[in-house]
Amino acid sequence: MPYGEIADNLRRVQDEIAAAAGRAGRDPGEVTLVVVTKTRGLDEVRAAVAAGATDLGENYVQEMEAKAEALAGEDVRWHAIGHLQTNKVRKIAPFVTLVHSVDSVRVARELDTRASAAGRRVPFLLQVNVSGEDSKFGVGVDDAEALAVEVCGLEAARLVGLMTMPPYVEDPEANRPHFQRLREVRERLVAAGVAEADLRHLSMGMSGDFGVAVEEGATLVRVGTAIFGARD
Q1: DSSP code per residue over 7-41
Q2: Which end of the chain is more exposed for a tag (fewer CB within 10 A), N or C?
């Protein structure tokens, strides 16, 4: 896709985020747009960065490593948004800004160990499977409290919120209940004694439904197709 179209699309998404925040009585500055660069070429990613993208999300560790190295001179923050295995954690711990997809004590502890070894503090989110789909990763709603309590005391890896991936739907309104449910999970965890500071972020909403997600309290939205166009 030409640079001009990517820049126009990025501005359009930013405007839609601001409009959705306005409808909900929120400050648009509370919402971070994570531009998903999965499978996108370096020229496309550079175009997005030149147009103002500051937060980039990758599903695969190998892709993120390569792009982070290629864009080492750019002022960007890297988000790990795909399912994360423990044997991949050591590769991203030295540079990742936020891990969205922790769904087990084992992964959280490995991130803590690797972040400590790198002399860093790495924030992470718990991925919660609010839809209950077998095809989705994430801890179940009923198990989220126990996991949050167990990992919120880590030192180098810090719990800062929750993430979810609802089903793909044609009508974004169909996912509103899932976004509401993630917010309710956070409220339940706070009521159970997990500090609000450990749950300040909700990562939810993608290209087809990020506006609804912002209306329901998202602080991070993960958008790729709406900026770069459909993948080949």
Answers
A1: HHHHHHHHHHHHHHHHHTT--GGG-EEEEE-TT--
A2: C
Q: What is the mean pLDDT of the chain?
A: 95
Nearest to 16 by CA among 3, 33, 36: 33
Give me the numbers of helices (H) and strands (E) for the chain, helices first please: 9, 9
**Which pair of structure tokens corresponds to residue 62?**
């190998």
* DSSP element (H, E) containing 78: strand 77-80
Residue 36 contacts residue 231 (beta carbons within 8 Å): no
Q: In degrees, to the nearest 5, what angle opens at C-alpha 132 toward C-alphas 127 and 137? A: 40
Report how far residue 154's alpha carbon sits from residue 28's, in angstroms, rounded to the nearest whole number. 31
Domain ranges of the chain: 3-228
- Tens of pLDDT, residues 94-145: 999 999 999 999 999 999 999 999 999 999 999 999 987 777 889 999 999 9
What does the DSSP assignment read for 92-161? Answer: HTTT-SEEEEE-SHHHHHHHHHHHHHTT--EEEEEEEESS--TTS-SEEGGGHHHHHHHHTT-SSEEEEE
Which tokens belong to 170?
A: 């044609």
CATH superfamily of 3-228: Alanine racemase (3.20.20.10)
Query: Both ends of the chain: CA-CA distance in Å?
Result: 11
- Can you give the pTM of this predicted structure? 0.95
